[in-house]
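Sample A.
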Amino acid sequence: MAFQKPSHTFTKIHLKALQTKSLYILFALSFTVFINTLSFAQELPKKQGTIPVEQERDSTSISLDSIAKQEVNITEIDSTKKDSIKQKGLLEGTVTYTATDYVSLSQKKKKIYLYNEAEVLYQDMEIKAGVIVIDYSKNLVYAGRLKDSTGYSQRPVFTQGENVIEPDSIIFNTESKKALVFNSRTEQQGFKVYSPITKKENDSVYFMKKGRFTTAEDEEDPEYQFVTTKMKLVPNKKVIVGPTYMEIYGVPTPIALPFAFFPMTKTQTSGLIVPSFGEDSNRGYNLQNGGYYFAISDYLDLAVLGDYYTNGSYGFSIESNYALRYKYSGNVSFRYENLLNEERGFPDFSQSTVYNLRWSHSQDSKANPNSRFSASVNLGSSTYFQESINQLNQSSFLNNTLASSVSYSKTFTGDPQVNLSLTATHSQNTNTGDINLTLPTVQASVGRIYPFAPKNGTKKGVIQNINFQLTTRGEYNIQTNDSIFGKSEMFDDAQIGMTHSIPVTTNFKVFDYFSVSANASLQENWTLKTISRYYDQASEEVITVNQNGFDRFLTYNVGASIGTTIYGMYDFENETKDAKIKAIRHVMRPSISYTISPAFDQYYETYDVIDADGTTTDQVEYSRFENSLYGAPGNTFSSSIGLSLSNNVEAKIRAKDSTQTESEKITLLNSFNFSTAYNIAADSLKWSPLRLTGGTQILNNKMSINFGMTLNPYALNSNNEVVNTFNINNGGSLFRLTSANASMSYTLSNDTFSGKRGANDDKKDTSAQESARSGGRTDDLFGRSENFANTRLSDQDNKGEEEEENNEFYNYKLPWSLRLAYTANYTNTQRQDQISSHSLMFSGDIDISPKWSVGASSGYDFVNDGFTYTQLRFERDLLSWRMNFSWIPFSDRSSWNFFIGIKSSLLKDLKYDKQKQSDQQL
């Protein structure tokens, strides 16, 4: 209560006339007398003694039912005076604050002032700024920048949990956890957002007004950004924006959206897949690879994609990936296309349907060490890769074979160990359409048994090393064609068979330098189909009759081999101490083998060929097992000696580094092998052709060279048939070259000798995996599998390469890579004397600037004098964008594909993608 100065009262009195009323005065006096009469001064009067009232208890009892209840005396009590729950203070936690220059406390204003590199910590909230003011009376925290002659510095950084905001200033309420942020900048998974005014509703909701967002590296001067009137941001979950338009370097564009939704969860989410637009000269305009992605769980997903062409063609595909850690992983995809060429009613109109099924499954080795299941399936129409125009199939349309295998194996531990496997295989020739299936192959084997081996110690001698093994194999084989695949007719010629074999081997040393191995094999084959053959004199043709029923035949053979290893060393240091080549080592491994295979004539029969006069003109021998699964046993006795010699040549050279004391070892010849055989029991052509094979690696093992040739010692007659006359005795050389082949592969890059990983290796790896799934090459020599709209093959957000410190005007390092493949085959079996195939293929990429990359895959066929399949690739890094162009300039698959889009996976659907096939008439 404040006192008023007397001067104020006197001043007011003399300016106003005094007025009194007797009635008012009389009433006031009466009221005062009445109060004084009933009031006491200072002390209360003492209580007089009272006579207690005698209480009488009423014996009458009154029963109350559940409805009638006694009245409860309810007395209102102020809950603020006493509460069972302890009242919270102004702050729920401890506030920790620091500053570099000073910390000032104003008890009068109930504020704390922090200046220069100020920091406040409260629960999960952290604020760093140039200036911070804490108003603990209102539970508010103010944070702002420092201002000096150069401008502003120390922008506030607001962190709460995993969310980080960098505004110009902020007002935060420590009680409600709400905040008002000015000129905020935040980033969520590469999604950078700026807003002049932001309202933080709680820990997980932000409302922004007139915001801008981008994924550009430079958020101060982004090459592109989206401007929106309002935005709702839920960190790590979603971003919802209102009317939005796009700016490129500050210039508005007509690209606008009424609203947009961007999921930002760290886990996979379901959503639409925007299709790619293209044009085909035969099928018209099209939309490709559009559909929906289903994030079923953390272990399984599903993508349903579709294509549509304006001439009525369509296609759809289903792709799914699955994985369970430490258990298994795999993927499965199915694609179907109904292709219409040209328009209906035109003479060149045609229709075809193609499909392809791919499945890959691998089991973790730690899941079950005793059993394993794996699958690699690639089957479908023989013309699928040739007719499909999907970009992913560009490098696979030259495939000649589709192969599949699904297998399960189980190992039963013990002594001996038993192995069981179940395998289904598929092999398809895309040129002929022939398909070979085994559904399935069952194989069981018992581990090697050493009946005479000692219980302890090593095995020595012939007897102790004797071992045998039991193997059983059964197959259900189907040979069919693509035209009837999946129909009941494909099972008409199915074959069933089983084979049992017992190989017995032993090995021992002779004279300490020679290794001797002896072996014998017993094999029995079972079949359910045999044939019977006879000559029909009326129709003058041989008739073959299929016979169903169980039948078997038994074969056996014995053999032995002896071999040794010979080392040779030539030391050049004995002649010259400073010789570059220190020494050359030559390793030879000669081997001689002998094999006896009896003639099983008991399984052969004959039929007579009779002419019209009833005269027998010929007697033909055949076996009833000819068309069985494992064929017929041999009917010719063979006693053959095999000769082989393998060579390996290495050299020690002086180290390039003068500080190294040890010499470097290089390989001159990995292998150089000779092999032939001599059949003692043969009546003619006893010598088999001499086969030479070899290989080496040069240029720091970057170039692989392999070669081979076949030399026949026998001559040809005038009909180009091999006769039992040595070629040297026929006026020729010692051997006649019948065939030869050579191949070379070379891989080189600017990082080859530095040991670094190439800049584009990750992208090539994903492309190579896609080609391998389709059965294509993985070295880009037939082109690269590319679908620019599919980030699985082309996403380069994280290249992982270090920036080179190059001159601003001159880039002295140009990343590049080169892959070469050379093949040549020579044929002269019947005096053709021609090169059957001769080609050089290459694929390379080079970064002509830090942002430009070009590549090409092509080759030249020297036999046909023409270029092979050619693909040209261009790529431009546009900072936050990427641009790709792929061009096949010629061939019947000539086409081009252009793509430009944002790199970030959050905005990858903002793109322009167009494909066009060239007009074949032009």
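Sample B.
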Amino acid sequence: MDPNNRGPEEYGHDGDGQSSRQRPPRDPLTPDFGQHTPALARTVQLVSGDYLLTVNPVDGSEIEVCPPAERPGRPEKLTPAERAEVDRAARPPVPPGPTRPAQPLLARQDEREQLVRMLARGRSVRLVGARGAGRTSLLDLVAEDCVDLAPDGVVRLTGFRRTPADLLYDLFYSVYSAPLYRPERDELLSCVREIGAVVVLDDVEFGGAALDELLDATPECAFLFGATPDAPAPSAESGIEEVVLGGLDRAAGVEILEHGIGRVLTEDEANWAGDLWFESEGLPLRFVQAGALLRQRDRLRAGADAVDEYGVFEDVPPADAPFEAPVATEGGGEDTPLPSLGEAAGPARLLASRLSASARTTLRFAVALGGEVPHQAHLPALVGDTHADAALGELADCGLVSPVGSRYRLSAGVQAQLEAAGYAEDAQDNARTAVQHYAWWAGHPSVTPERVCAEADAVLAALGVLVPATTPPAEGEESPTVELARTAAPAFAAGLHWSAWERALRAGAEAARLAGDVSEQAYFHHELGILALCGGQLDRARTELETSIGLRGALADKRGTVSGRRALALVSDRSGTTPGVAAFAATAGEEVPDARYEESQSPPGGVPAAFPPAGDATTLVTHQASASSSATSHKGRGGIRSFARRNLVAAGSGALLVAVLGTVVTLGATSDNDPNTPSNQVGVNPSASQGPGDDSLGADKVESNDDKGSGDTGTATSRPTDPGTDGTLGTSDDPTDPSDEPSGTQGSSGGSTNSPTKPPTSTKPPTSKPPTSRPPTSEPPTSEPPTSEPPTSEPPTSEPPPTSPSSSDSASGPASSAPASTSASAPETTEAGSPSSSDAVI
């Protein structure tokens, strides 16, 4: 059944226009209860280099050489307003709820000024700091100070799980306007060389030669890198300055605590803060989390009855939650002791126990996704609470999540602390819920590819968790991992996030293999072949496409097989090789209408080889156009042809040229009756000199006009001699050696068959009764080897008589219709049909 064309064949009919199952008529009063037209698949057409790519989520993407009219021009840079919108999208979203005061920059002013000075001089700087040292916050402040330093402003990028090639494309799309266009490597480098901006690149994970490649591609940019101490260092030749970001002093730590709780610390709290500073080595993140612990303690001491931070929604923790109950004092009040030093060193469990249920469920999803926090817009659907988006604000205030690019992840050390607290026990179930939600969301018609690309890390994390545990689904069901990869991969391709596209395709191919879904496995291999072709990896593209064609051929998927064959033909054209056998394999014994088998038509008599082997001038490479061969070619269309199509066309052109030249010579041989034409005086051994009296070596002695008798005798040959001063051809009376004959006239025994000898010319007019003659046949008339004696006056029977011009015209008919192989041999020249001087020159 065709999923796109639901015709009569769905019910077992052959398209007779009637269906055995008639749909009930739709009631105009209740149109919503009728059958709706299914939503069309979203196909997106984009240009990648010199390819035109049509992303088709049904049968597989189509690729072809981009027509000149469809190729976009050179991209233009964004306007300042558009750059501001791109910069806003590169930042993490603001959590819902009331605006929170920003954390002050403490004890970082010197580093801030130093970084701005280096960037103003055009130097690239690498800021090295441990996780939780406040590196990202400092980079944001420096970026605000460098807005006016470069013509293209400030570009914010993230290096988390990004390669140098990914970052080059990210930089390109941050500065240039190029919708639905992915430039090739050379054009990409040409565009990024013209970018003059301050690039703030946080969480860079590579160094050495890869970092040098990024710097060499962007000579007009000044980079501010943010990296951890365990990241690879840059090379010594890169010239990158390095600034180390250490911990805060004790006074700065106490100030962060007081800013977090909004009051001055007590003596016990100050001593507790001193112990925390010594244990944490002054990391600002630890003081932010400690401030959240003190803030929760104050709410408990104030007698706040499990009301969330905004005082609107009541939240009662479940019975199994590790909630710390207040401790009753002797005065009847409630008091909560200070957290122990161990709890302050690993505060994630205690902090999470005092958050709302939605916040704790969000943490469970983050732990299941390897630290990736879903976007706040997805939290209501995942958690099951319409107000679950406020959980992101709770987590950010506690320091349990940190911004990474345009999204949030669990802060340093939180993942391990929550796993130890039991938040990973239902990780598989939470990951499965996330996979099902993202599969529905990514395939919804209202979701744009750009939104799917923004959530790529969470989608890929969900696939990474569930793909190894994929099992064959029950009858009538689909594997959730295969479904998610199937819906997300086309969106990644259309959104030009091709690194995510490749990861989704590989995860989908593995999931389809584990689930036993051959159809989906063929789709993923087809898309991997298209991706490799766009990237110039022709060998990998051929392997993936041949795998896809083989799988689809086993399933009798004609539409998918045709799509794969077209892509494989493009790969073969780019690589200059012949497609493999799998490219021409028949599909379930049926003929695919769109996969036509084209072959150059050979001329009659065969195709002469372009370069015949030495010593065998009569060798022909022929293609017999017969019914049996035609049937065989269609039946065995999967074989590898010996010659490429262009070689057959060239050979056919050569055969046509040989046939035309043979016809011209034959026509010229029968178009003149003048026996005294100088071209009739051609001998079998041409003279090297045509001047009278020349007896030099190799020259034939030519008599002068005074000594010339009644006529010269000689034999005609198909090889003309060099023209003389008057444009005529030389003559010779000497016999020729058999080796001087053209190779095409040699017999099988090694001898030579001469053309008929020419009768002696005479000044007498021809008799009224010419001797009988017969038209030339395909085989030259046999004759004895030439001798030095002139031939007899009686012409041979095979010579055509001298006739009138009308008779010569009639004689040219059979000669012109002779086969190419006959015309290629030495033509028979006679007295009545000797070629004229102009014909001989031709």
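B remarks: The first helix runs from residue 80 to 89. The mean pLDDT is 73.
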